[in-house]
Design goal:
The structure is a homodimer of 337-residue chains. Chain A has helices at residues 4-20, 26-31, 39-51, 68-76, 85-97, 102-117, 170-184, 201-220, 234-237, 241-252, 254-266, 312-330; strands spanning 55-56, 65-66, 120-125, 133-140, 145-152, 157-163, 225-229, 271-273, 285-294, 297-307. Chain A is α+β, with helices and mostly antiparallel strands and 337 residues long. A five-stranded antiparallel beta sheet of chain A has the order 7-3-10-9-8, sandwiched between helices. In chain A, helix 6 (102-117) runs antiparallel to helix 12. The radius of gyration of chain A is 27 Å and the shape is elongated. Chain A binds a DNA duplex (30 and 30 nucleotides) through residues 23, 25-27, 37-41, 43-44, 46-47, 57-63.
Chain lengths: 337, 337
DNA sequence: TTTGGCACTCGGTATCTTTGAGTGCCAACC
DNA sequence: GGTTGGCACTCAAAGATACCGAGTGCCAAA
């Protein structure tokens, strides 16, 4: 679509603009290695690139700035990069140390990735597919308070506190727990339950309360979890306070964030630039995403949110590596290498 | 310490500065209701207040700005305020709707409180005292993967994933679970465990692995949980980008945050102004805190972080009301009005 | 088709001036 | 003696003005 020279010029403009955040003039482009042409030629070409929508000019006597379309071309023509040695080292060190509970790990990963790239990082844990219940137990916490704990096939834990209207003793809870467990283990979490009456009225009261607590909540809690790390780094990326405000605000709206990332993934992209994603307050941002898999199954997404003028090559590499290593780390027992 | 007139003038300066963020001159102070003196008199008094460290002057020909000491006097002489009717209404509505799991509730509260005050809100859940284990269960998640789930007296759940070196079947896990449960229920979480050998080698392997997983982790996970809501609102409070950056960054460092809040509480304060707390990057911030209690027991802290020139009266009232209502909401069964 | 040359544009910076809010001090006043 | 009006003084902020120079578009020559 673009001849070689135009492509080279566009690339040079994008690279320099990413570096300096200043409009790029024909002279500095002409000086770029690998381009043996004069600035006048560059000017002509840049003119054409502007006509075609790859570049824009803030005002007449200024250099050019890439448009979203310009960035898009740049990103698409990017060779698949590698991390710097030091960063590879950091990743290794992080995942060697990393351990512990899933949620903690995902949050730590988002913070780590943010530190690695110097942008804000997001880790989304996909909503569980309707998962089979591996174990279910009722625990008495007080005379009328009972905790329902369900362990799902994935290892995730769902808990609900419920309050019954009359005092129940431990024995009743124990009986109810056994009954409930028999009823529910192996079935899908969130599925409606039919409770057959047992001999004891008290037990039935508890069981039906527990069943009720489990069912509707199953749906409501079926939303993905989001972990945002290094949001404050977005304050570095822009200098307009209002932009900073908007971006940070959006980062706190987990629903928007999840939708955005899901949307980008659905379109099969790994990068969404500026207005490509429809989220208006993030018009000056790009997002780089990669899914991670546990035991070969898609389990969530790792992403970076940065300014449109971000270091795409490093960021893409970082996101790719981290998502892969995260998946490995979470796939227990497959610690090969 | 300050005569009435000085106090009134100081108050007027603080109030106007909080409102306008501009240095306050003698004229506007003289115009304040309740002060029947000329600007010249005010000037003399302000001079004295500056000498005594309550006010400062950005430069010679500017008005005065309160110092931390000035704010301190202002806050200490504040009548205990009430929320506006609309806000009381909001609080009621929020806690009427609010329900669900503890963590979720604490996070929602921090977001709500942030919206109520327009500053950043922090909710800290205190580390559990060494709590008795109410229930313990091992659940098999895969041939070699076992999940240990402990329910503590408070209803908190601790879980550890562990991997054993050889395949164990469900029956073994069941046996180990029963044994472990008998061993551990009623004892303190995190306490060292002595494991007597049972008849079966396989069971012993699992039990000792589970015991090992439980003990050291008990200490490490014994740290308070922090929920920050509305951090982005700090971007409104300042206009120096570097300040915004610092503050947001600090807000992400949970350890610093917890220490800060704990420190303020330990000193028996409900407000820490500017440099009073030692956290340098938050020198332009004040923090307002109040503990919340579950069933009469201190369970955590609610706090607001805002600029030194925050609306102390409303904020104090909001924090007080929210901490109280939060405690009530979390004290199950005590939903009296 | 490329390039050197040239006139032109216009945002940014630097310099200077003006403005006005605010101060400190003093002498007069109650 | 505390209070007040008056006054000279200060100094940041806001305008005004000029200038600079990076950058452009276009043209004619190579």
């Amino acid at each position: 679509m673009l001849d070689d020279r135009k492509a080279a010029i566009l690339r040079a403009v994008v690279e320099e603009y990413i570096e300096t955040a200043q409009p790029v003039g024909s002279n500095s482009v002409a000086r770029a290695p690998g381009l043996a042409v004069s600035s006048a030629t560059v000017r002509n070409e840049m003119n054409a690139l502007e006509r075609d929508g790859y570049l824009a000019q803030p005002h007449t006597s200024a250099g050019r700035i890439p448009t979203d379309k310009g960035y898009r071309f740049f990103v698409d023509s990017l060779p698949s990069g590698r991390l710097e040695a030091g960063q590879t080292q950091q990743v290794r060190a992080f995942f060697d140390r990393a351990h512990g509970e899933l949620e903690r790990m995902l949050y730590d990963t988002s913070r780590f990735l943010s530190g690695l790239t110097d942008y804000a990082a997001v880790v989304v844990r996909d909503a569980e597919d309707p998962a089979r219940i591996r174990s279910l137990q009722l625990v008495s916490l007080g005379p009328r308070i009972i905790l329902v704990v369900a362990v799902l096939a994935s290892g995730a834990i769902e808990k609900r506190t419920l309050e019954v209207q009359e005092d129940v003793d431990e024995v009743v809870v124990g009986a109810a727990s056994a009954r409930m467990s028999a009823l529910v283990v192996g079935s899908l979490f969130g599925a409606p339950l039919s409770v057959a009456p047992s001999g004891t009225r008290e037990v039935d009261v508890v069981v039906s309360a527990a069943a009720a607590a489990l069912v509707p909540a199953g749906a409501s809690d079926h939303t993905p979890q989001v972990f945002v790390g290094g949001a404050s780094r977005m304050a570095n990326a822009f200098d307009a306070v209002t932009t900073i405000r908007q971006v940070l605000d959006t980062l706190e709206q987990q629903y928007v964030l999840v939708t955005l990332i899901k949307d980008v993934m659905d379109r099969g992209l790994s990068v969404a630039i500026g207005a490509e994603h429809g989220v208006v307050p993030l018009a000056d941002c790009s997002i780089v995403v990669a899914p991670y898999q546990i035991e070969g199954e898609p389990a969530g997404t790792v992403g970076i949110l940065g300014p449109t003028r971000m270091h795409y090559e490093q960021t893409l590499a970082a996101v790719a590596v981290v998502s892969k290593r995260l998946g490995q780390a979470l796939s227990k027992g497959s610690e090969e290498r």
